[in-house]
Amino acid sequence: MKYLYGPIKSRRLGTSLGINLTSYKTCSFNCVYCQLGKTNNLTVSRSEYIKIDEIFDELRVWFDNHKEDLAGLGYITISGSGEPTLNTKISDLINQIRKISSLKIAVITNSSLLADASLRREILGVDLIVPSLDAVTQELFVKVNRPHQAIKVDDIIKGLIALRREFRGKIWLEVMLVKSLNDDIRHIRKLKEAIDRINPDKIQINSPVRTPSEEGVFSVAKSKLKKIKDILGDKAEII
Ligand code: SF4
């Protein structure tokens, strides 16, 4: 399979079948903690990076050959080796999956394009959106996520607030914390203010556990993650 991966077990989604919507590695960010290595196509330009018809053909074949695995699947997860919302045909894929399956669909996104109302409409048909928000000041955002220069974190926050208004499914906001980078308690308090405005269903606190491809990226100590969870409130969990 070229575009499907798994089923994989993850801490947050249980067992899910992943779909990759971008060529390696096309992303609007180049996060310090990325497990996939350096972003070689840092872009905000949307395109049909991978042909949706080819993905869908692969998915149909997988369904035909894995009927016994379907009952154990929690989600079909649109994600992959880059930012999936960069693919202009993401809504076509969601609609086609709906026609052949009653499985729940999740989109994992770095949130970078959510300020765009038309893009938000393209993903409203899923059951779960897992957007990221690691920093709330532009300075820290640039340090952690190393975004394309056109992206402003204030626009991302506005996009997330609008998404919450428009989307009827669940939003599980992921916050990736890197030791001595974005885990300062003053920053966490600002993050909490932004998250309160976004009002996600869950806040999933994460910290790099596997060694990222970059040196100098370390996990936050468990005791500090616990303190941060307490600041972020009842919806927060450490994953
Ligand atoms: S947004 Fe995801 S894929 Fe893109 S660089 Fe960050 S961790 Fe990697």
UniProtKB/TrEMBL annotation:
Transmembrane keyword on record: no
Source lineage: Bacteria, Pseudomonadati, Candidatus Omnitrophota, Candidatus Sherwoodlollariibacterium
InterPro entries: Aldolase_TIM, GTPase_Obg, rSAM, rSAM_sf
An annotated Gene Ontology molecular function: catalytic activity
Pfam families (alphabetical): Radical_SAM
Required co-factors: [4Fe-4S] cluster
Ranges of residues in domain Radical SAM core: 11-239
Transmembrane segments: none
Keyword tags: 4Fe-4S, Iron, Iron-sulfur, Metal-binding, S-adenosyl-L-methionine
Name of the molecule in the record: Radical SAM protein
